[in-house]
Amino acid sequence: MTKLLFTLLTLAVGIGMSTQAAVNGALGRKVGIIEGAFVSFLIGTVSLFLLLMFFGKGNIIEVFSVPKWQLFGGLLGAAYIAITIMTVPKLGVGLVVVSVIVGQILMSMTIDHFGWFGVPRTPFDGQRMLGVLFLLVALFLIFRSNIKF
After folding, report:
1. DSSP, res 66
2. What is each CA distance from 119 to 28, 43, 46, 83, 112, in whole angstroms?
C-alpha cells in the first residue's frame, strides 16, 4: 500500500509541476523572468518556513555541517524555475515539460548506473535503452508538432 500511495503522491507532484510551469510562465510574462522566478521562490520559501515552524522535526542548524555540494539543489531549482518561465511562453507547456522529463530521465539513469550521490546502483540495460529511445522519439514528435508552417 505504501508504494501505491507514494506513486500517487509522485503523480500528483508531476501534475503540480506542469501546472507550475504554466502558472509561472504567465507570471513571467507579466513581471519578467528573473522577477517571476524570485516571486515563485519567495512564496515557496514562506510556505516551507511555515511548514517547518509547525511540523518540522529535523535540525535545520545541521545545514551548516553538510558537504557544500548538497546545497547545489537550490541553485538547480532556481535554474529550473527561471528557464521554464522563459521557455513556456515560447514553446508551450507540453514541449517544455516533456523536455524536462526526458532530461530528468537521462540524468537519473546516469546517476543510477554509476551510483552517484549514494543511490543504489542500477545498471543501464537493454530495457532502459529502449525506454530512452522511446522517450527521445516522443520528444521529437512533440517538438515537430509544435513547428508552425
Report:
1. S
2. 35, 31, 30, 27, 7
Helix ranges restricted to H, the chain: 2-31, 33-55, 72-91, 93-114, 126-146
Query: Which cell is 59 given?
Result: 535540525
Question: C-alpha cell of 106?
Answer: 537521462
The full set of domain ranges for the chain reads 2-146
Prediction pTM value: 0.81
pLDDT, tens digit, 9 for 90 and up, residues 93-145: 999 999 999 999 999 999 999 999 999 999 999 999 999 999 999 999 999 98
Q: What sign has the CA pseudo-torsion 12, 56, 67, 46?
A: positive
